Amino acid sequence: MSMSLNGNRPGEDLLVVDDLVKHFPVTRGIVFQKEVASVKAVDGISFTVKQGETLGVVGESGCGKSTMARCLMRLLDPTGGRITFAGRDITHLSRTEMRPIRRELMMIFQDPYASLNQRKRVGFIVAEALQVHKIGTPAEIKRRVQELLEVVGLNPEHYNRFPHEFSGGQRQRIGVARALAVNPKLIVCDEPVSALDVSVQAQILNLLKDLQRDFGLTYVFIAHDLNVVRHISDRVMVMYLGKVAEIASKEQLYATPRHPYTGALLSAVPIPNPERGRLRRGIVLEGDVPNPINPPNACRFHPRCPRFHEGRCDVDEPPLYDFAAGHQAACHYPLERWPMTADEIGRPGAALVGNVTEAG
Amino acid sequence: MPLLEVKDLRTSFRTDDGIVKAVDGVTFSVERGKTLGIVGESGCGKSVTCLTIMGLNNRRNSTSSGEALFNGENLLEMSPRRLRDLRGNDVAMIFQDPMTSLNPVHSIGKQLVEAVMLHRDVTRKDARLRALELLKAVGIPRADRRIGDYPHQFSGGMRQRVMIAMALINEPDLLIADEPTTALDVTTQAQILKLMTTLQDEFDTAIIMITHDLGVVAEIADDVVVMYAGKVAEEGTVDEIFTRPHHPYTWGLLGSLPRIDADVERLVQIQGQPPSLLNPPRGCRFHPRCPYVMDVCKTEQPLLMPVSHQPHHLQACHLDEVTKDHEAAKLLDGTLAQVG
Taking CA atoms, what residue in A is nearest to B243? Predict the structure, then answer.
């Protein structure tokens, strides 16, 4: 078995998500459960991920990033919409039909302590996917696992150790090796470095970048840290309360954010440079993310938005307006430039009307 | 006189595997109204330093030595009764996880009132008014209605605000915050940091901020202590540490940070893991991971010495100053040259 680029060519759409919806029912009653409401965790999002690129997904906790990831992995059944992976609609495939596809679709989890089985040896953990998919003889599997451990920077001799014998960073490497075992096309990384120290975080980020270069991997990279997302992503999607607020290339998003929410996120990031930090004046968002059971009308960001216009933002839901090639944001009163002072942000120009693209 | 002066603080724990020297000779001071940031990786002893100052280590398996002079009184030799008087009154602490540090079965109002009545001779009614005042000060909307709510009815950011209200309710001189924003979203973090600095100005409180996030330190701290494996690697003002760092470990920390204000293709990696404190490396504790390691580093422990012309900027490294200036400049150019 060799680890090589498999299937699709770079630049082709590997994953197409169209109007994905996931609602969790809220029920009352013990015997006769009645649905009284629903948590609208993901409420109509669309995006594509091209072969070989990294799509970063950011947003506050509760914005639906992880639910979206779980839907992509088909660990949750979407309520609506369509997920097309490598040209095949996987939205409603059964467990058996999904099995061959799971080889190509892997996940790395946030907590390197909880995501590895404490009672199994590392060799077993990494080999499990190979065994499930019946790839190779026992000897081949063993060789492959040792090769994988080496690729992620662990000692292949540690094959027989248990997870608790490793540090947090090393465990995350085991998680990466496990995801790589079956040569996946797409790896969904759900906050893979947020539980790690900065120095270890740098090691894992460098490793993920190296692996992408060597094996042509495609990542959907979920994180709440905008510094990390900027470092690893090619394109970035900002989510707010189950919707896409803005999606753009990394350069566009960080240099010219259009959605006030993106602006607020960017100005909330602490900059490790005291002089620049002191100079910065930005938007400090008030309040918390609203309850997704009963989200605000129209633009979901309007109760917290510094550019809120009564009669517009709370009446018309903003579509994803096009700003530049590949740069879309869902805001009627987008930011004109960046950076802006809090005062300028509070005085938006004319509202957008035309130029509407029908997207999620 | 500084508000808090810590001199050669040492704490060790007896464990089944041997003695862990978690804090091994730490010296720093905090002025009234100023913020000191303590940074380092997990296990470097930053939390234990503060727990020792507060007298919160388990006395059955830990021993401490050194001095922690708070207004001239040594906290380490204080009677438990006097210490109880001090805690929550003159010195308060905020922890990382507000859910585990609030009592889930009492309303926040009750917990706040208790904090006042323990230290002040006031009626319950006055204590309640004071609690309300603080909840308003930390920006809890509809405070008069929410005072009767239980911790689980608040969001993470709101809970941390309640913790801050509780910590500040007796107007302490010193507030120790142990990773107060680590569990929060960036937007909430920005709110909490802003709140802490505003309240600091109002009450002239000194803050010790423990964090692993160098960004947070750069935003809020006046002085910084960088700890590594139970020792101070470098300390100085925030500008000294961020614009002219003098220790290879600080370079590693700064370089390993993906940052929003600069583009780097590859992050600087500090090789390996922090050492076990059961059996720390001989000589400089950072030498097994240090790219600039010399023979002297493996045998002789570097002392914390002032950098020339900067009497308050201390560093513990054998490397000569010319090389350091050169390397520090290179690191900063690498990241800062591309600032857009």
Answer: A273
- Angle at the Cα of A339 from the Cα atoms of A334 and A342, rounded to 5 degrees: 75
- Report residues of chain B scoring pLDDT below 70: 334-340
At A287, list the tokens: 């309040």
Please give the model's pTM, rounded to 2 decimal places.
Answer: 0.86
Q: How many CA atoms lie within 13 A of A165 on its CB side?
A: 11
C-alpha neighbours within 13 Å on the C-beta side of residue B298 = 6
Residues of chain A neighbouring B228 (CB-CB closer than 8 A): none
The reported pLDDT for the residue numbered A199 is 84
Per-residue DSSP letters for B254-302?
A: HHT---TT---SS-----S-PPPTTSPPSSSTTGGG-TT--HHHHHSPP
CB-closest option in A167, A169, A273 to B242 = A273
- Per the listing, tokens 């079956």 go with A182
Q: CB distance A61–B268 less than 8 Å?
A: no
Q: Cα–Cα distances in Å, from B221 out to B49, B98, B164, B188, B224?
A: 18, 22, 18, 18, 7
pLDDT in tens, B221-264: 999 999 999 999 999 999 999 988 999 999 989 888 888 777 77
Would you list the domain boundaries of chain A?
13-233, 254-346
Whether B267 and A276 lie within 8 Å, measured CB to CB: no
Could you give the CA distance from residue A267 to residue B42 in angstroms, rounded to a whole number? 27
Selecting from A170, A270, A286 the residue whose C-beta is nearest the C-beta of B218 gives: A270
C-beta separation of A243 from A65 below 8 A = no
Chain A residue numbers touching B41 (CB-CB < 8 A): 197-200
Which CA distances in Å does B48 have to B53, B229, B246, B254? 8, 12, 25, 23
- What superfamily does domain B4-221 belong to in CATH? P-loop containing nucleotide triphosphate hydrolases (3.40.50.300)
First to last CA, chain A: 41
Cα-to-chain-centroid distance, residue A284? 24
Structural domain spans, chain B: 4-221, 243-336
Calculate the dihedral angle through the C-alpha atoms of B242, B247, B250, B256, rounding to the nearest 10 degrees.
110
Q: What is the CATH number of domain A13-233?
A: 3.40.50.300
In the DSSP assignment, the letter for residue B54 is T
Cβ contact B41–A169 (<8 Å): no
Q: What is the predicted pLDDT for the residue at B9?
A: 95
